[in-house]
């Protein structure tokens, strides 16, 4: 799955491929960190290099202490002679500890800034791209991967810094060892590399097993949801699914446990082999040191320092090997983020060469030969439609499902760009106006409304252009949508949180949400109000109140109404009938009924459903009396 791309890449990559990719990934992490906070990045860099220098200085000071202690003469004199080196060693140790604290503070302060830098960049793009971007399957998949990449950015930065720190530590030890005696560098490599190889090999085994278990993890994830979430709880109990689901869980976990135990054996074997080879190599190093001592080629102090250096190098190398895997894995996920950001640029609105004027109040919306193709369809969703809506009119778009009503309304609302043709506002194409200003004069109540996880008041207030609607305006809009009394009956009234995910949150029915959505549209009191199936879930009383509020706009503001309930559009100034994307009829209700076309057929079908004439049943024939026994 997409969230496993980094792990899969690591499982399939050889060690040479991993090391070849590391410089680019580390450079990328440093660049992110630098953009997020230059000061803290500089502190981390300086402290890391300083800690490495202190490590090298510490080893050299240790060697000097050992030289003095192993020299001939009285013990007191040897200790006095070693005191300057001991003081240097103590100072180096203290400075190194201080640098570690400084690094910790800097990294802790850097982490949230990196998170904000990367995540804010993603949201700046996802909220700005054109709506048609979301029609492309590849875009949706890319965006999902990119969200995982934002989390990986922090891990990539932290892992890269830890990797650099580990490498600096290894390099510092190597430099110190070379200064003491060049032959000791070879001893250091022989003693440390086997364990490093074993650690990288063990990581490779873990990643490979993780990828092989992808399907099992998805099944476990689904079972976790089915057994522990509110949505599935009623049916789980009513159908007695508890034993069934637990059995499914046990089957998957039995397999997973066996695989994990096999992995543990393989990893243990690998690390044991590495430790064994490393132990033998270390023993060889110690033998070599002994021979060099006997031969007089190195002093005892240098040999002792080499032992300390081997231990320090092993610790640093252990850090390096662990962070190599982390950097490579998280880097693949972050590449999904950077790739998405580059590709998403193609969906961003074209910047205006010169400032565009703000539109005046609506006088007329003209749709001129508009066609729109969705990328996954052979036939157009809207096909060469031309119509005019004038200020103060109430017009309706009607037709069967898939006839193009919602798509046409979206183009009028400037949410979609026609493939061909133009939408004009007051005689000029909407693209020649400041689109943000055009949208402030339009309110859209969508068929697929979103349940915003805010309070009832905020859910309505988001319809306000300035997001600063007063309570009296919110309540007035709610009353027009037949929502005021319903909201007042909630536990906390307008301050009730409409999301059960949070404490004291509440659920609403589909009809109640539809009232909230309608109130949001009414609050803006826009020049043009587009209402797409605003009453599909309303009870008759609420529906009547809603359409009365829509009729109250007539002559004062413009309304485009999309609905399948044709009785509610009888009073529209003009009804546009669409079929398979084309405009096939238009006129008033009476004109369309007289034309006896598609609208008349649809209206007659609905009217038949409201025929109040009682059905006449044939009389039941009388049954003859049964003879008494």
From TrEMBL:
<feature type="domain" description="ABC transmembrane type-1">
    <location>
        <begin position="43"/>
        <end position="329"/>
    </location>
</feature>
<dbReference type="InterPro" id="IPR027417">
    <property type="entry name" value="P-loop_NTPase"/>
</dbReference>
<keyword id="KW-0472">Membrane</keyword>
<feature type="domain" description="ABC transporter">
    <location>
        <begin position="367"/>
        <end position="605"/>
    </location>
</feature>
<keyword id="KW-0547">Nucleotide-binding</keyword>
<dbReference type="InterPro" id="IPR036640">
    <property type="entry name" value="ABC1_TM_sf"/>
</dbReference>
<feature type="transmembrane region" description="Helical">
    <location>
        <begin position="43"/>
        <end position="61"/>
    </location>
</feature>
<protein>
    <submittedName>
        <fullName>ABC transporter ATP-binding protein</fullName>
    </submittedName>
</protein>
<dbReference type="GO" id="GO:0005524">
    <property type="term" value="F:ATP binding"/>
</dbReference>
<keyword id="KW-0067">ATP-binding</keyword>
<keyword id="KW-1133">Transmembrane helix</keyword>
<feature type="transmembrane region" description="Helical">
    <location>
        <begin position="163"/>
        <end position="191"/>
    </location>
</feature>
<keyword id="KW-0812">Transmembrane</keyword>
<feature type="transmembrane region" description="Helical">
    <location>
        <begin position="272"/>
        <end position="294"/>
    </location>
</feature>
<feature type="transmembrane region" description="Helical">
    <location>
        <begin position="81"/>
        <end position="107"/>
    </location>
</feature>
<dbReference type="InterPro" id="IPR011527">
    <property type="entry name" value="ABC1_TM_dom"/>
</dbReference>
<dbReference type="Pfam" id="PF00005">
    <property type="entry name" value="ABC_tran"/>
</dbReference>
<dbReference type="InterPro" id="IPR003439">
    <property type="entry name" value="ABC_transporter-like_ATP-bd"/>
</dbReference>
<dbReference type="InterPro" id="IPR039421">
    <property type="entry name" value="Type_1_exporter"/>
</dbReference>
<dbReference type="InterPro" id="IPR003593">
    <property type="entry name" value="AAA+_ATPase"/>
</dbReference>
């Amino acid at each position: 799955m997409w969230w496993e791309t980094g792990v899969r890449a690591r499982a399939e990559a050889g060690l040479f491929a991993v090391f070849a990719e590391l410089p680019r990934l580390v450079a990328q992490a440093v660049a992110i960190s630098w953009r997020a906070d230059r000061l803290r990045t500089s502190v981390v860099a300086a402290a890391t290099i300083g800690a490495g220098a202190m490590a090298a200085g510490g080893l050299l000071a240790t060697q000097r202490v050992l030289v003095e202690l192993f020299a001939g003469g009285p013990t007191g004199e040897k200790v006095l002679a070693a005191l300057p080196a001991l003081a240097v060693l103590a100072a180096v140790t203290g400075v190194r500890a201080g640098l570690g604290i400084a690094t910790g503070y800097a990294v802790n302060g850097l982490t949230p800034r990196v998170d904000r830098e990367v995540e804010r960049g993603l949201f700046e793009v996802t909220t700005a791209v054109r709506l048609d971007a979301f029609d492309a399957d590849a875009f949706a998949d890319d965006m999902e991967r990119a969200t995982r990449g934002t989390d990986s950015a922090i891990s990539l930065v932290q892992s890269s810094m830890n990797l650099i720190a580990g490498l600096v530590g290894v390099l510092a030890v190597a430099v110190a060892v070379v200064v003491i005696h060049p032959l000791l560098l070879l001893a250091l490599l022989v003693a440390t590399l086997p364990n490093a190889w074993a650690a990288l090999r063990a990581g490779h085994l873990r990643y490979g097993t993780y990828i092989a278990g992808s399907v099992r993890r998805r099944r476990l994830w689904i079972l976790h949801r089915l057994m522990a979430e509110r949505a599935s709880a009623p049916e789980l109990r009513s159908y007695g699914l508890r034993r069934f689901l637990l059995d499914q869980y046990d089957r998957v976990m039995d397999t997973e446990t066996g695989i994990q135990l096999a992995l543990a054996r393989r990893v243990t074997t690998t690390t044991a082999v590495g430790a064994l080879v490393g132990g033998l190599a270390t023993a060889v190093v110690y033998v070599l040191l002994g021979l060099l001592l006997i031969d007089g080629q190195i002093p005892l102090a240098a040999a002792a320092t080499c032992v300390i250096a081997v231990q320090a190098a092993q610790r640093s190398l252990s850090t390096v090997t662990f962070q190599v895997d982390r950097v490579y894995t998280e880097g693949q996920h972050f590449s999904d983020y950077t790739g998405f950001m580059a590709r998403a640029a193609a969906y961003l609105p074209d910047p205006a060469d010169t400032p565009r004027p703000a539109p005046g109040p609506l006088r007329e919306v003209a749709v001129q030969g508009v066609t729109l193709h969705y990328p996954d369809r052979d036939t157009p969703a809207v096909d060469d439609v031309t119509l005019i809506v004038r200020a103060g009119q109430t017009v309706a778009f009607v037709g069967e499902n898939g006839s193009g009503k919602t798509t046409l309304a979206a183009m009028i609302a400037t949410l979609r760009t026609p493939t061909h043709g133009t939408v004009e506002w007051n005689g000029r194409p909407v693209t020649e106006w400041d689109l943000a200003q055009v949208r402030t004069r339009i309110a859209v109540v969508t068929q697929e409304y979103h349940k915003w996880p805010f309070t009832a008041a905020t859910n309505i207030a988001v319809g306000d252009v300035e997001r600063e609607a007063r309570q009296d305006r919110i309540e007035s809009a709610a009353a027009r949508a037949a929502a005021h009394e319903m909201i007042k009956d909630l536990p906390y009234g307008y301050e009730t949180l409409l999301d059960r995910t949070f404490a004291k949150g509440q659920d609403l029915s589909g009809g109640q949400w539809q009232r909230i959505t309608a109130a949001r549209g009414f609050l803006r009191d826009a020049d043009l109000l587009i209402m797409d199936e605003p009453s599909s879930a309303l009870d008759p009383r609420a529906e009547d109140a809603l359409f009365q509020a829509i009729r109250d706009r007539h002559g004062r503001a413009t309304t485009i109404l999309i609905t399948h309930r044709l009785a509610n559009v009888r009073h529209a100034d003009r009804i546009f009938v669409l079929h398979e994307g084309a405009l096939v009829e238009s006129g008033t209700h009476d004109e369309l009924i007289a034309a006896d076309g598609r609208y008349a057929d649809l209206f007659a079908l609905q009217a038949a459903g409201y025929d109040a004439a009682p059905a006449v049943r044939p009389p039941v024939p009388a049954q003859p009396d049964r003879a008494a026994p």
